[in-house]
Write a structure and sequence with these properties.
The structure holds four protein chains of four kinds. Chain C is an alpha/beta fold. Helices cover 37% and strands 19% of the residues of chain C. Classes of the chains: A alpha/beta, B alpha/beta, C alpha/beta, D alpha+beta.
Amino acid sequence: MHADPVGVLTGAHFLDGDHAACEGAIAAGARFSAGYPITPSTEVVERFSHRAPKIGATFIQMEDELAASIAILGAVWGGVKAFTVTSGPGFSLMMEHIGYAAMTETPCVFIDVQRGGPSTGLPTLPAQADMMQVKWGSHGDYEIIALCPNSPQECFDLTIKAFNFSEQYRVPVFVMMDEVVGHMTEKVVIPRAEEIEVEPRRWTTQDKSSFQLFAPCGEEQTPEMAKAGDGYQVHVTGLTHDERGYPNMTPAVQDRMVRRLVSKIRDNAEKICLTEQHDIEGADVVVVSYGITSRVAQRAVETARAEGLKVGSLRLITAWPFPEHIIRAIAPKVKGIVVAELNLGQMVREVERCAGGQCRIAHVGHAGGTVHKPEQILKAIQEVAR
Amino acid sequence: MSSPIVSITAPANPVEDFLRTDRMPHIWCPGCGIGTTVNCFTRALLESNTDLNKLSIVSGIGCTGRVAGYTNLDSFHTTHGRAIPFATGLKLASPDMTVVVYSGDGDLFAIGGNHLIHAARRNIDLKVICVNNLTYAMTGGQTGPATPLDVITATAPYGTYDPAFNLPYLVEAAGAVFVARWTTFHVKQLARSMAEMFKKKGFCFIEVVSPCPTLYQRRNKMGDGLDTMKFYKEMSKTKHGAPTNEVGLTKSGEIIVGKFVDRERPDFATMMNAHLQHELGDQYIQAEGPVCG
Amino acid sequence: MRLTELRIAGFGGQGVIMCASVIGRAASIVENGYATMTQNFGPEARGGACSAQLVLSPTPVLYPYVVQPDLMVLMSQEAYVKFAGDIKPGGTLIVERDLVRVQELNVPDVKVFAIPATRIAEDLGRKMVQNIVMTGFFGAISGLLERESLCKAVEDSVPPAFAELNRKAFNAGYEYGMKHLETGALELGEEDPVSVSE
Amino acid sequence: MARGSVSIVVERCKACGFCVEFCPSKVLALSSAFNSKGYHPPHAVTPEKCSGCDLCGMYCPDFAIHGFRTDKPAAKSETEKEPDDAC
């Protein structure tokens, strides 16, 4: 279906990434947000608080991130699309509810504007160091989807995508921004509402007596939704549960349920994995990057190509599920892969795992606080190409 | 066994309609009072003619947290301490829904204490039922925020020495519009109080003092569930309107019960709508419940 | 439009970010080029100093930060002291004439242009439009963007009730710039016509 | 003549004794028999005294017993007090 024009600010705007992400959420149909202020993400909810009363939406500033991250889940079960926004320290506090959202298959969106850590770290400066936390931060086995915009335009586009994926798979989806992308201002073109594809919630029409809130449907292995008040008497629990939602703490039910939580994403990974690939065919070196780093890396790639090196680039738009199939295909054909990221070694581990020793992996790490110098990435390309 | 009288024409137990009977028997111990509070809850729903399709129940974690799982209503068993913020989101997204938070003293007042005081401050329209068994029961009887002084617990083997919260006093101070306390002995009063609460708008709170014979009473040589019920009968004193600063619980002293607070204050949504309407005029579009497309 | 790195700096309240935003909007939205604006959000940028960086380009901007500005708009002495030395050789410095005393720089061939933007804004009746006066001046001196583009960006950036005032401010700055271009850039270290009120 | 009766689901009972203790007419006692979990469920020892007030049903934490009226509901007489007024 198309976006509701009420929330769509069609036209060209000069917006920063935080504001663009907010517009993306509104265009995607989000009508509830609960937040707690934290740099450098606060502008997202500031804008939402400004926009909400004029579009029939609700914003509430909660007492902490734990509250914000579960208030949105309550709102989802009340029948709206909802999201929250945070950065490192707040994200750490939200981990519990990432697990709860995954376990209860609650469609929702978290926007994490990454800053330097650990702990309070660099509140106003960038990093890409929550990339493992977003996947593994809550306890237990589960899968999520994480997207990495590299411009304000993508903060808009991918936030819509995030909502769409969340509805499609009933899973929490993460927009993994970074401080640079969040605070940089560029042209953002917002299409007309009828040009924006929005995934509606998949409300069930099944019989009330036999409907099962956690029974998988279709190749997405994703159950249909009902909300409180629909007369289905839903039961939602973070305990291991059967298809009705009833707690059933046996190894057999655990196996069935957790396997499906994982496989609904893994089995559909190729559909979820969005990438941007350039000149990979025939390349000696492929540079893997995401978020703001992909722009800096592109400058290094262009310089390297100008020097005559055969360099391709792979940008991870979807970081999770990790595009394993692409790395597996590239690894045997290249001398090496250069991974540039604003951390001291996170997604590179996934690249190493999937490359399986078939080519050299060079990591260009950075502790955060600013972006790489393109020369740092160039140097790694030159070394690997040698 | 000697035959209990079972009339062929016996009408169903009124509680049955509210239960997920396929989940019975429940996990609560013999002599535990949580089930008793559920009886009162269902009678209150009947008495107040609440539309059950427009009522949700939200629980945290713990023994009382299991109530959501046993009630045949839209029910949400959330994370530890976070029933109130979940309920806040649910209520704001679904304004015509009656949202009941049903949880324990540890869940609501320790790990969830911050959420509780803020929801009371904002006067979110939630009906909070706190079954206070004075301990963390699900995890084995450790000291909780409501455990009185001089009580033996799994983590206070020599007795507690940190003062407990006086729950009605705290909740009143934080802004609740309705505050009452009963024990599981006071079934009729409790049911009546709950029915009254369902009709009241704003942040409402009922504390129900309840036995935990397996952990609390046994460890403190206070007998079983029935002994505790007799203790409640003997030691309770009804004082409606009692100043909440005078109703703190002790290990073996008097238990003041009654309706302590019943006052008027606009709830969060009313304040929000009035304010935004005033500030924005025709530009204000009030959220009208579920929209999802 | 050519690839240009800009820094605009001053103290809080001068509308530094707005000035950068107007230029970025003119370049990317009105003229359909590319502009990336970043701001100094670090704690070091608090306590008065305020700075925005802008990269203008005919092609997509990859590296988001300014490395060595081609042009700087400096609206306070503090900003001048902090940033002026970073200018690219042969670059252009634009300063607020009454608030900045230009000093010798160890960078060759820097051109300096000064405008009493605050005073002009005060004469227009609203000191707060000093940044728009400065934007007009920037437009004339830099020649990077069309006058109409900048003016349109100004109008799109302010509430309709203030459009007329801001247009006036922009034009005042632009005209001042055109005159200044006729008389040529200042010499570094030149005391006159810069007068710092103390 | 009994005006009420009780219905008992013996398998749910955990023999807490609340119903026996707080029955205003002292109708109930725990039986000597076991249910399958080894608890002694209640039975009516003086069924003729049962008023069907359902206080047992209100107290029972295990949803195992409830009382109901067998006669036509009559207007309350002055002597018929609500059981809870005693506490």
